[in-house]
Design brief:
mainly beta; globular
């Protein structure tokens, strides 16, 4: 059962680099916009753009999973209907493609 209200989870999504959504709630689509950059489109818009985006990512290298940083990209869009994130290798401070899993959660007030 979905709950919409103050400080509730407004949307969440799990996808892979190919922008193939594995599971989601209130997300309509994902677009790959550049190296390690994605635009996430919200199905039912947030009431405003003052929401919180939290996430992480992983990639698989030679059989071992590695964690990556995934967060809202300041130079990308951030409106009531979408936001842009960037996936980055924390050890090399560079964006990369090829994530085996990207996970984002959106919290918003009603």
């Amino acid at each position: 059962m979905a709950f919409f209200g103050d400080n509730a989870c407004w949307a969440w999504v799990h996808w892979v680099h190919s922008t193939s959504i594995q599971s989601d709630y209130n997300i309509s689509s994902i677009s790959h916009t550049g190296t390690g950059q994605y635009q996430v489109n919200i199905d039912n818009n947030a009431p405003n753009s003052n929401y919180c985006v939290v996430g992480n990512a992983e990639w698989d290298t030679t059989g071992g999973h590695r964690m990556a940083i995934a967060g809202r990209y300041a130079q990308g869009g951030h409106g009531s209907g979408n936001f842009t994130i960037r996936v980055q290798n924390p050890n090399q401070s560079q964006s990369f493609n090829g994530s085996t899993g990207i996970y984002m959660v959106v919290f918003s007030t009603d």
